[in-house]
Amino acid sequence: MLVVAALLVGSSAAAAAEQPYTVVDGKVDKKTFNGWRRYTESCLRCHGPDGAGSSYGPDLVDSVKHMTQDEFNEVVVNGRTNVNPASTSVMPPFGEVEDVVTYLDDIWAYLKARADGVLGRGRPPRIGD
Ligand code: HEC
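Above: the input record for the complex with heme C. Below: its predicted structure, written as tokens.
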């Protein structure tokens, strides 16, 4: 039993070191909150509320489970156009949009918290609120 407990503590500590967000009792740190705010301003109209996807843009909560942060940043900065007979979908480049490129880490943190299932939908409460 003790060994199992130690292993669990060890692995959750290792995971914590990699987490880009802080969520305590369902409340988020400033960075994660800002990520939600920037996401809502710049990405929601295509990717749907809370990163959940829409008929136009893919579900980003799912995307960040399969992407590295570098891959994510690359798509956001440079955009991507996927044209095929069934659809023409365009992810616009945000490389020149200061409110987005300045806060790529924050948007990533917010989406990772959603992807890891530690943060629900809607406006997240802030730690200290
Ligand atoms: C004008 C609509 C639009 C806006 C605004 C938009 N996106 Fe996209 N995004 C798309 C579409 C459409 C795709 C799919 C492109 C394709 O077909 O490859 C996409 C793809 C992506 C991908 C790749 C997903 C994957 O699984 O490969 C990421 C990451 C992404 N968007 C992040 C963002 C972020 C972050 C923002 C806000 C800063 C944003 N997008 C704003 C339309 C949009």
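Notes for the reader.
Helices lie at 2-18, 30-42, 44-47, 60-66, 69-78, 98-101, 104-115.
The pocket of heme C is lined by residues 42-43, 45-47, 56-58, 60, 63, 72, 75-76, 80, 82, 89-92, 94, 100, 107 (CB under 6 Å).
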